[in-house]
């Protein structure tokens, strides 16, 4: 795995670089921030397999990448650095990090999945937020399966494959997955045009019937057919664009920013069916939920969980909150984007929880330029069941706990 030293040598980390200023998410009068937990998707990576898709789906070879399949790229690390600079300014403004120097021991905790991209994202974030402070992330050895980020296989009891399958199918709505595929026909045709470039005869994904493969013990349901393949293909095109590849290489020169935004709907559909339904979200997150609870009340006042898009989608579904990053479909987790859970208190010791989603827009990731004060996308979110008359937009801890842990 590439270490911080390797990343710095590649010129993608900037110890001592000035942090971006921040416009700051307003804190209600009389309240003070005391804990922050961020569940973040890793930065830009290549497809996790080579070739990116099974043979025959595209008429040409997929563009190459400079790192092995699934690893954080140098450009992806730079974009994470830009976001972390902004995060650091926010955390210092809130008083959770010192204005200068290093955080006190034990006050910052960063947990990563065991994939290279999540470990490297965690290290890049730490290096940008607290340079030369020697902070390290917690994670198993690279490549070793981590049950924290893949909750269903590790569940010893309580997982019902039939309920999981039912939850996914119900999320498809009237007519099921077949109806979704019919509604998506124009978008599937556009994707096939990008994949095939006018070639006919076996190319593309449009002829494959879509279906939800039922869950089995220890495994979640899956989306197959045109909608499943479209989610993977659309994500690959998004990553090519986010990486800053020449536009002539993005979708072989046949895809533009408008296509990337429109096609990301396939990724959002996949998560709508397989991640956001409450039963599935709770099962997927069964080992992450305790980390969130610890992060909102424990000795670490800043906790970052460096995971995957599915983890972020799971938490969005569990809390029943929605976001819409510029350049993507609604609720599609963008590389480096995070759900941010903030605990606040008043002078009487009463606590509250705020939920936001923060990220760069797609064009900001593509350019990887430094962020100005009001650059990042940041939106306040309200989980179902939360209501605090004196502080609209916040949850009481009891309301938040119900939203996070109530049985589906």
UniProtKB/TrEMBL annotation:
This protein's UniProt keywords: Signal
UniProt-listed Pfam families: His_Phos_2
Keyword presence, RNA-binding: no
InterPro entries the record matches: Acid_Pase_AS, His_Pase_clade-2, His_PPase_superfam
Classification via SUPFAM superfamilies: Phosphoglycerate mutase-like
Domain of life: Bacteria
Record flagged with keyword S-adenosyl-L-methionine: no
Residues making up the signal peptide according to the UniProt record: 1-20
Protein name: Histidine-type phosphatase
């Amino acid at each position: 795995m590439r270490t911080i030293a390797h990343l710095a040598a590649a010129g993608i980390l900037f110890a001592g670089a000035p942090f971006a200023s921040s416009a700051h998410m307003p804190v209600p009068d009389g309240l003070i921030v005391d804990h922050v937990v961020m569940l973040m998707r890793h930065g830009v990576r290549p497809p996790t397999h080579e070739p990116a898709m099974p043979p025959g789906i595209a008429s040409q070879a997929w563009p190459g990448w400079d790192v092995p399949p699934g690893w954080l790229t140098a450009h992806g690390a730079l974009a994470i650095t830009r976001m972390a600079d902004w995060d650091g300014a926010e955390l210092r403004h809130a008083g959770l990090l010192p204005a200068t120097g290093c955080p006190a021991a034990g006050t910052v905790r960063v947990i990563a999945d065991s994939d290279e991209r999540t470990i490297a994202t965690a290290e890049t974030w730490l290096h940008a937020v607290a340079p030369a402070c020697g902070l390290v992330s917690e994670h198993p050895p690279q490549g070793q399966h981590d049950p924290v980020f893949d909750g269903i296989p590790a569940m010893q009891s309580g997982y019902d494959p039939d309920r999981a399958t039912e939850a996914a199918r119900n999320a498809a709505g009237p007519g099921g997955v077949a109806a979704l595929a019919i509604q998506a026909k124009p978008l599937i045709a556009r994707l096939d045009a990008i994949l095939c470039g006018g070639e006919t005869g076996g190319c593309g994904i449009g002829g494959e019937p879509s279906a939800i493969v039922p869950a089995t013990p220890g495994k979640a349901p899956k989306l197959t057919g045109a909608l499943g393949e479209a989610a993977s293909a659309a994500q690959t095109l998004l990553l090519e664009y986010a990486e800053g590849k020449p536009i002539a290489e993005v979708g072989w020169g046949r895809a533009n920013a408008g296509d990337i935004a429109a096609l990301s709907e396939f990724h959002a559909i996949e998560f709508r069916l397989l991640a956001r339904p409450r039963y599935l979200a709770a099962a997927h997150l069964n080992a992450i939920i305790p980390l969130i609870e610890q992060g909102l009340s424990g000795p670490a006042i800043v906790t970052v969980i460096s995971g995957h898009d599915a983890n972020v989608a799971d938490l969005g579904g569990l809390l029943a909150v929605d976001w819409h990053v510029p350049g993507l479909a609604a609720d599609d987790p963008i590389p480096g984007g995070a759900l941010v859970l903030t605990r606040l208190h008043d002078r009487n010791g009463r606590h509250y929880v705020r939920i936001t989603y923060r990220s760069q827009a797609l064009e900001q990731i593509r350019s990887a330029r430094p962020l100005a004060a009001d650059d990042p996308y940041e939106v306040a979110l309200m989980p179902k069941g939360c209501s605090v008359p004196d502080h609209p937009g916040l949850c009481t801890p009891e309301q938040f706990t119900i939203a996070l842990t109530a049985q589906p």
